[in-house]
Specification:
Arc Repressor Mutant, subunit A, two-stranded antiparallel ribbon, 14 strands
């Protein structure tokens, strides 16, 4: 079994499409397909169910995916260990992040990291927190910046970076906009704009309404912060968002505090429970710790300090 066969297999599994996987791996589709067939012959089992539109993993394919990721992660760690002995920092670091996490300035951090460690390849993927944490657990990512609701799965360690309260955002002419603070019961009849269910902020909101014994109607479900605030700005619904997003992203909405204790949006960095899998990941974590410890606070329009 060759490592490149496992790399091609993972690409097809993640892309769910042979053409896209071939483009990602910079190989002819015929060559990628031949590698997958060779892997299936060696293992004695089909790995994908193929159709004209997409491919899906078989049960054997799902079993192989986790092991393939762990195998490639172990190979990368071995290479990094040898480079570390030689006084070099090479290899790659695979990063996941949810959108608009106010605790970190990720582009600046990665630019600083590349300047100090030009030999390290940086790979970045943006998705919801639930999926990112699962990828850290299975070895698909070295670390991820997430806003997870509840405890992480076994095999993942979370280090909190910041905590912010959730706030209501609404149209400036909405009746809630005239209040200093809002009770939970005032929200139960509202129409909501919210994120997909794997986003941390959505999970926090769902848990908070469940804890209050209230139901709510999510009529518009989006996958980015700017769309959510744009819909709220057109008075198509209200939303609950972390305080930094309420004040920074759209000046056409009104932010209102929740009365009593607002649920907390906690941004953390997720790594495997055993610690970073390679020196490059540890070097990036050190830079993140340095950056977040020195980050200045910003002030919201109402005078409340908020993390940048």
């Amino acid at each position: 079994m060759e490592l490149r066969h496992l790399e091609y297999f993972i690409a097809v599994a993640e892309e769910e499409h042979f053409t896209r996987a071939a483009e990602r791996m910079h190989i002819a589709q015929s060559g990628l397909s031949a590698s997958i067939r060779a892997l299936e012959r060696e293992l004695g089992a089909p790995l994908f169910v193929r159709s004209t539109r997409r491919v899906a993993l078989t049960e054997a394919g799902r079993a192989l995916l986790a092991e393939a990721r762990r195998t490639l992660a172990s190979v990368a760690a071995a290479r990094s260990a040898v480079a570390a002995v030689q006084g070099l920092l090479r290899g790659s670091v695979s990063i996941g992040t949810e959108q608009c996490l106010a605790a970190i300035d990720l582009p600046t951090i990665l630019a600083r990291f590349r300047a100090v460690h030009p030999g390290v390849e940086i790979r970045l993927r943006q998705a919801g927190s639930s999926g990112l944490v699962e990828d850290v657990r299975t070895g698909g990512l070295d670390l991820a910046f997430v806003a997870l609701s509840g405890r992480p799965p076994t095999g993942v360690s979370l280090t909190p970076l910041t905590s912010e309260p959730m706030m209501v955002v609404c149209h400036p002419d909405h009746p809630l906009a005239r209040q200093e603070a809002v009770d939970w019961t005032q929200l139960q009849d509202e129409t909501f704009v919210d994120f997909h269910t794997d986003w941390g902020a959505r999970q926090i909101t769902d848990r908070a309404f469940g804890a209050a014994g209230l139901e709510r109607q999510v009529a518009l479900e989006v996958n980015d912060v700017h769309s959510l605030l744009d819909f709220v700005a057109e008075d198509l619904g209200v939303a609950l968002v972390p305080r930094p997003l309420a004040y920074k992203k759209n000046k056409k909405v009104r932010a209102v505090a929740l009365r009593d204790t607002a649920p907390a949006w906690v941004v953390s960095v997720a790594v495997p429970a055993g610690g970073p899998s390679n020196p490059a990941t540890q070097a990036l974590l050190d830079l993140v710790a340095e950056s977040t410890s020195t980050a200045p606070a910003t002030t919201a329009p109402n005078g409340v300090a908020a993390s940048a």
